[in-house]
Amino acid sequence: MESNSQNVVVYLIDDEFAVRDALALLIKASGWAVKSFDCAQDFLINYDHDVTGCLILDVKMPVMGGLELQEELIKKNINIPIIFISGNADIPDSAKAFRAGAVDFLEKPFEKSILLERIDEAVQKDIKTRQQLVEKTSIQDCFNRLTAREKEVLQLIVNSHSNKEAAKILDVSPRTIDAHRARVMEKMQADNVAALVTMVMSYELLNKSFAPGEIQ
Amino acid sequence: MNSQNNLRKQAEALLSASGTAFTDMSAEDIQKMLYELQVRQIELELQNEELNHSQHELMISHARYARLYNASPIGYLSLNVDGVIKKANPAAAKLLDSTPEALENTALGELINPLDQDEFFLFIQKVLITHFEQTLSARLNIVSNMHANFFCQGTKYFNCPPEDCIHNDQATYVECRGHYSIDENNDERICLSIFDVTTTKKAQATIACLNQKLEKKVFQQNQDLIESNKELIARIEELKQYKRQKIEQEAMINAIFTAAVEGIITVHLSGVIVYVNDTVESILGYSKEDLINCNINKLIPLARQKNPTQYLNNISGIGLSNAVGKIQEVNGIRKDGSTVPLDISIAEFAMNGTHYLSIIIRDITTRKMQEQNDQKHLDELAHVTRLGLMGELASGIAHEVNQPLTAISAYSQACLTLIEDKNHDQTLLAETLQKTSAQALKAGQIIHRMRDFVKSKKIHRSSIDINCLINDAIGLCESYFKLNSITLKLQLKHPIPSLCIDAIQIEQVILNLIKNSIEALINVPPSMLRKLSIQTTVNENNTIEIRIKDNGPGIDFTEQSKILTPFYTTKSEGMGMGLSICRSIIEAHKGTLRFNSEPGKGSTFYFTLPIEQINNGI
C-alpha cells in the first residue's frame, strides 16, 4: 500500500477549514499524499488527469456543491472515484451520488478505518479503470479497422449464428462468410470465438441498432 | 324886466283891440273905473306875492326831490317805449357798472342776460299796454360784486364738490318794478326801479340746496337707522338662539357628567374638591358629601405613586400646556383603603376669574389584568413559536455543530495515528490537540446559544446591546449563509445606545426575519448574487431601527397585506405565526415592525425599539 501511494494522490474538497485541516492531517498520517481544496473550482483547475487517485468530496458547499461537481466531472469524462462526505446524509442526495457511481457516501463524523478502507477501495478502482481504459482503447482500435461488412459478420457471430445462417441472412455464400470471419478474428486479435464475444460484450462495441432482435 | 315889458305890450295890444272908448267916459265913470283899477292892482300885487312864495316852496321841494333821486340806494331808470334808458340815477348806474351819463340812450336790454331778454321785453310791453305796475326778475350781464361776500358751508357739512356749488354762478340778479308815466314833454315813459337781489337769490338758492342735501342726508340716516335696527333685531334673535343653545348644552354636559363612565372631579388650584360626579362615588366608594371640600390628595395620594415626580409635575405644572391632554396612570385610594389603578387626565379652566382643574379618572383594573394576561399569553406564544423556529433551524444548527465534531473526530484519530509512530512529531501532536480543543469549544458555544434561545419562558428585560444580539442570531444560522452562497453585509452602528428589552424575544424576531430572508433568497438562482444585509441605526425620535434586507423575489402585492396576520403562510410547512408573533413582540416593546417589498427586487423588514432611560422605570 505504502509503495502504491507514492504515485497516488488523495484529493480532498471541503469548504470548512477545520474539517479540511483535520481530514488532511488524518489521511496524511495514514501515508497518503493529500491535495486539499476549499472549493470545487480550485480542484477543477488543479486536477491532473494523468495521476491516479481518488476524491473525498463534501456534499454541501457554496457556489458548487459536491453533487454538482460530480455531474461536471462526468460531463468532462473524468472518472476519478468519489467518496462523498456529508454533515447530514439525506437519502435523495446519497441515492443520486451512488447512481452516478460514487464509491461511498460517508456521514460526518466517521471512523478512520472506514475512511481508509474506502480510500483504498477507490484508489484500486481508479487503477482498474485506468487499466481497462488502456485495454478498451486497444480493442476499439482493432474494431475500427474492420470494414462495414466485417462488422455485420461480427454482429452475427456474437449473436451465435452459424456460418450457414449468417450466409443466409446476408444473402451470400457460406464461403464468403468464412473468409470474413477469418479476417475479423485476425483483426480483433482473438484466439477463439469465446474471447471475441467477451471482448465485444464487455466493451459494448456494438451499437444498439445492430441489436440481434432488430435484425431478425 | 323884459318879460314884464313883453307882458305890457301884449296887454296894450289886447286893450286896443277891444275898442273901448276911454274919451266918451264920464268923470263919474272914470272915477269909478280908477277905483276899480286900484283895487285890482292891490289884488294882483297880493297874488304876485303869493306866487313868489309858491315858487320858492316849489324850488325847495324840487331840490329835496333831486337829493332823494341821487342819493337813493335803489336804482331808478327812466326808459322810453323802446327800452332805451333816458335817465338814470347813480344807484342804477352803479348797479349797471356805469355812470348816469354813459347810460343815457343805452338800451337796457343789452345789459340783460340773453337768457332773460325775452322776459324783459314782455315786461316792457306789459307796462306799456296795461299801464299797471309790473315786476321782473332778471340776470344782468354784469358780474355781481356781492357774491364775494357770501360764504356757503355746504362743502364743510355735506362734502359737496366746490365746482358744483351754486356760487360759481357769478351773474347779478336784479328785480325791477316798472310803471307807466308821461313826462313833461308828453312822452311815454317807463319808470323803472331796479335793485340787486343777487345776495338774496344766492342765499335762497343756498338754502334750497342745503335743504335738499339735508333732506337727502336725513333720508340716508333714516335708512341707516332702519338698517341698524334690523341688525339689532337679528342680533337679539341670535343672542336668544345662543342662550337657548347654551341651556341645551348645559343640559347635555350635565347629562354627560352624570352618565360618564369616567369619574369627573373638579378641584380648585389648591387641590380642594369642588365637584364630583356619580361615577367617582362608584369608583372610589366615597359619597359626594365625603368628598366636597376634601383635598384631592386624599383620593390620589402622592406617596402611593410609582412615579411621584411626574405626577407632581402634572398637578403643579398646571397652566403649562404639557400637563393638558396627557393621560397617565396613577394609583387611587378607595374609602376602604384599597388601591385602584386609574388613568388620569387633567385640564385647566377658569370660571369667574378663578382657576380650576378638571380631573378625569378611569378605573383600569380590568384593563390592567387584561394587559397582564395578554403579556403572559404573548410570552407563552412567543416561547412556543421560538421552539418551532428552533425546530425549523435545527438541521442547520445540527450541521453547524457537526462540523466541529467532524474536525474533532478527525484530529483525534490523526493524533492516535501519529502516536503510533515511535518518532512522532511532538509539536505537530500538540498543535493538533490544541485545534481539537478549539473545535470542541466552538461546538459547545453553538449549543449554549441554542439552549439559551429555547429555555427561557419568563420575560426578563435587561440592558442589551442590540448589535451583540444580531451577532448571536447570525451565529445560529451561519451554515445557511454558507451553504446557500448568501453574502451577508452588516452595517451596525457603533457605539449604539443600550436597549431595555427581553433579549431572547428580540433575538427571536431577528432570527425569524433572517430565516425568512434566507428562505426567500433560496429562490434566487445561484448565478445571481444573493445578498442579505442587516443594519442598525439610531433614529431622531429616540429609537433604534433594525433593518433586514434581502434581494429575494419579494412579496406579491396581494400577499403584502396579509403576511403580518396570524395563520397566514406562503410555505407548505409552517403555521403562519412567525411574523405575527414578531409584530406582537415588537409592539409589546413599544416599537413597530414594518416592511417594504417589491416583487422581483426584494424585501426589507424593519423594526424600531425605543431607547429608554434606565432610571425612568417601565
Shape of chain B: rod-shaped
Helix content of chain B: 40-55%
- CATH architecture group name of the largest domain in chain A: 3-Layer(aba) Sandwich
Q: Give the N-to-C terminal Cα separation of chain B.
A: 158 Å
As a percent range, the share of helical residues of chain A equals 55-70%
What value does the average pLDDT of chain B take?
Answer: 84
Report the sheet with the most strands of chain B, covering strand number, pairing sense and barrel closure.
5 strands, antiparallel
Can you describe this structure?
- The complex is a heterodimer of chains A (216) and B (618).
- Chain A is α/β, with parallel strands linked by helices and 216 residues long.
- Chain A has two domains: 4-132, 3-Layer(aba) Sandwich (Rossmann fold); 146-215, Arc Repressor Mutant, subunit A (Orthogonal Bundle), CATH 1.10.10.
- Chain A contains ten helices and five strands, in the order βαβαβαβαβαααααα.
- Chain A has helices at 17-29, 40-46, 66-75, 91-99, 112-145, 148-158, 163-170, 174-187, 193-203, 212-215, and strands spanning 8-13, 33-37, 52-58, 82-86, 104-107.
- A five-stranded parallel sheet of chain A has the order 2-1-3-4-5, sandwiched between helices.
- Chain A is elongated and about 75 Å long.
- Residues 1-5 and 207-216 of chain A have low confidence and may be disordered.
- Chain B has 618 residues and is α+β, with helices and mostly antiparallel strands.
- Chain B folds into three domains: 70-212, Beta-Lactamase; 260-363, PAS domain (Beta-Lactamase), CATH 3.30.450.20; 369-616, Histidine kinase-like ATPase, C-terminal domain (Heat Shock Protein 90, 2-Layer Sandwich).
- In chain B, 50% of the residues lie in helices and 20% in strands.
- Chain B contains 17 helices and 17 strands.
- In chain B, the strands form four sheets. A five-stranded antiparallel sheet of chain B has the order 2-1-5-4-3. In chain B, strands 7-6-10-9-8 form a five-stranded antiparallel sheet, sandwiched between helices. In chain B, strands 12-14-15-17-16 form a five-stranded mixed sheet.
- The radius of gyration of chain B is 67 Å and the shape is rod-shaped.
- The relative contact order of chain B is 0.04.
- Mean pLDDT of chain B is 84; it is low at 317-323 and 614-618.
- Classes of the chains: A alpha/beta (216), B alpha+beta (618).
- Chain A binds chain B through residues 15-16, 18-19, 21-23, 25-26, 29-30, 60-63, 85, 87-88, 108-112, and chain B through 395, 398-399, 402-411, 413-414, 416-418, 432, 435, 439, 442, 482-485, 526.
